[in-house]
Design a protein that fits this description.
Among the domains are: about 30 residues, no CATH class; about 120 residues, no CATH class. Helices cover about 35% and strands about 15% of the residues. The strands form 4 sheets. It has a 4-stranded antiparallel sheet with strand order 5-8-9-10, with helices on one face. It has a two-stranded parallel ribbon with strand order 1-2. Strands 3-4 form a two-stranded antiparallel ribbon. About 10% of the residues have low confidence.
Length: about 250
């Protein structure tokens, strides 16, 4: 069986002729599609042009997405159209207020500011503790270095540099210029040495003609020339309650 569908019935014979000599058992069924009226032809042409324009818009603006809206109803807000993945439309009821935009409340902002303040205080406190620990370690190393330099000086001269600063003074002791002159071998660090140099201080450890600790105070020094010298740093303490924080060359009780 051969089925022929054509929109022009006058061409049926031509199509049958194209098949040539058919066998007797072959049955030919022809179907003619109806011709649209002028009114329906206009509607059909308009639909095709609309589809073509939409396809052109999609090609130019691929980010656009058109969806069939769904209607949802709410007891308090009224019916409105909602588009998936699109900005919601205004409610159909003009008296229904719009949903407020999400934002932080004053309590939430205060809570965040408080937390930031606490974290900042902890960070600054930890940084201050690290600086104090570093200064303490530096002062201990410098006190030990000065004591070793005094021992080398004693090995060559059979005496220690003379120093009269009192180890019981609470305020920051005055710098011992005699200690500086004997260990460095000159009146200043930049001057040429006139005698053997027993200690090579860092520039940050020198202020004029005496040694200073990491807190900027002069190192205390006491020796009568015969007994082992006492060298100490007040570690920035200027009151009697802070003497237990001093860094000394002698053991603390």
């Amino acid at each position: 069986m051969i089925e022929i569908t054509t929109s022009n019935s006058t061409k049926v014979n031509e199509l049958l002729f194209a098949f040539g000599n058919l066998r007797p058992e072959v049955i030919v069924i022809t179907m003619t599609t109806p011709t649209l009226s002028p009114f329906h032809q206009k509607i059909f042409a308009h639909a095709k042009s609309t589809k073509a324009s939409m396809q052109e818009s999609f090609s130019k603006f691929p980010f656009l997405k058109f969806h069939i809206p769904r209607v949802s109803a709410s007891r308090n807000r009224g019916a409105h159209f909602a588009f998936p993945n699109q900005i919601p439309l205004f409610p159909l009821n003009p008296l229904t207020p719009r949903r407020p935009t999400a934002a932080f409340t004053l309590v939430e902002l205060l809570a965040v500011i408080t937390i930031i303040g606490i974290l900042a205080g902890l960070t600054l406190g930890a940084a201050g503790a690290v600086r104090r620990h570093g200064a303490t370690s530096t002062a201990k190393a410098e006190v030990a270095a000065l004591q070793a330099a005094c021992d080398r000086y004693f090995a060559d001269n059979s005496t220690y540099p003379i120093g009269t600063a009192s180890p019981t003074t609470v305020t920051a002791p005055a710098g011992a210029t005699n200690l500086f002159t004997n260990l460095v071998g000159s009146a200043t660090l930049t001057a040429a040495p006139t005698s053997k140099r027993y200690f090579e201080p860092k520039p940050a450890m020198v202020s004029s003609n005496y040694f200073i600790d990491p807190w900027g105070y002069a190192y205390g020094y006491n020796s009568d020339g015969t007994n082992a010298p006492l060298i100490w740093s007040t570690a920035g303490q200027t009151t009697a309650s802070g003497t237990n924080k001093w860094i000394t060359s002698w053991p603390k009780m």
